Amino acid sequence: MIEGYSLSLSDGNDWWIASDEDNLSVVNKIARIMQLERSDPNGSVQLIFSEILSNQSDKTDHELLKYVNVSLSRQDWRCYDSESVRIWDHKEKPLSLCEAKYRSFEHYVYLSLWNSIRPIYMRSILSGGIPFHASSAELNGKAVLFAAPGGTGKSTCYRRLPDYWKRLSDDENLVVLGKDGKYRVHPFPTWSEYMRNEHNNTWNTGCSTPLSAVFFLEQAKADEVLQIGNGEAAFSMNRSACQVFGLFWNQASEESKSDCRRRIFLNACEVAHKVPAFLLRVTLNGNFWEAVEEAIS
Prior knowledge:
The protein is of the alpha+beta class. The protein has two domains: 3-116, no CATH class; 130-296, Alpha-Beta Complex (Phosphoenolpyruvate Carboxykinase, domain 3). Helix content is 30%, strand content 30%. It has eight helices and 15 strands. It has helices at residues 24-33, 106-116, 118-126, 154-160, 191-195, 230-245, 254-274, 288-296, and strands at residues 3-8, 14-19, 37-39, 45-49, 77-81, 85-90, 95-100, 130-139, 142-147, 166-169, 172-177, 183-188, 209-219, 224-227, 277-282. A seven-stranded mixed beta sheet has the order 3-1-2-4-7-6-5. Helix 6 (230-245) packs across helix 7 (254-274). The mean pLDDT is 87.
């Protein structure tokens, strides 16, 4: 039995995230965390959790084959094999098969889920989007990103925002190019919370908000906002997107890696051209959000 959930992104990429009967517990976890609704495939791009390619013995009558009319010959697939997850992308069909490892270890299954969503990012990159290693928040219908390398204060700033701000995500976000030509932010889960056994938060991944500005954080002795040029903004956006992929790229071929990096850089240049970017200098105790509000007003 194959069961799945839908994820619709603002760039027109509709996903069906599903599993065979052996992996239902895995896909149910990802659906709860990302607030997905159960659905039928309906022509969507499919990300299916299964081990059908990893263990091909006695698979000719597998239930999954009723849903995917493709050859199981490995030469028709690209494989990304990491410590936590093995992903098979079909070279011609809008289909990815994913084997989440560590299913018997609750702590590590979330690392598998974290890496399993990379096909979602990669398809949106083909549509002009980029992922951000950043926190996101919304004020009066405008989303902003606070981008910085790990350990430099983005999560702290996210938590310090006053209550009239709506917090969206404090770790990863996917910026997509909407059908109206404007960029929108989809918040993605902070998987590390689940790896720390903090199982309370969920994220409405299918909901998006127009992107108003991107702020790159820098610790300072005074709170201030400085607008930066397109070139510096594109460089910083590209770096933030590359941080999201991290070790995942170690499992990609040089050709795939080079093509993905090139597309990310070109997309970052386009985002920098259309979305204002700022250097946000923040102190430990100041009201940095007041400078942010003035910048986006």
